[in-house]
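Milestone M4 deliverable, item 7.
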Amino acid sequence: MADRYRPKSAVQRAREGNPSKTAIKEGVIVPRAILAEPDWSEVFKASPDPVVEVVNARCREVASEEWRRVVPVLEVSAGIGEVDHATVRDLCVCVARIDQAERDLSERGLMVTAERGTVQNGAATIAAQHRTQLARYIREFGLSPSARTAITAPNFDDIESDVWD
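Output delivered:
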């Protein structure tokens, strides 16, 4: 289902027609950049607690794998630039947190014993919240088959060397 509050891209409006005849804004052209992988030890800090450190080490590994998997695709397909660095970093953190929550669910189960009896594992809620955010990132970056149909790859040959002139 399409998001009726989210504006369509200029390419999509031109392709589907513009019955209102309003001006189609082309949008902002972001200077192309090769994004450097963040230092994941700054995001998932070292901990003196060995159990937490094992979890954080796995999160660093998962986030790094996701970065190396997604960034090369986005550099070509979406034409990401330096301005997108924080958003792509958050996407990778989101994937690492989902992995962390799923591992906790696998180890402790959906229901856990707490002070007031048996309750739902909090990792289930955390995983659901991160999945909702991940779905937004996937849609924004065109990382799903349906989202890819709505975007077109940038043509860097047509862009002048200095886009700000």
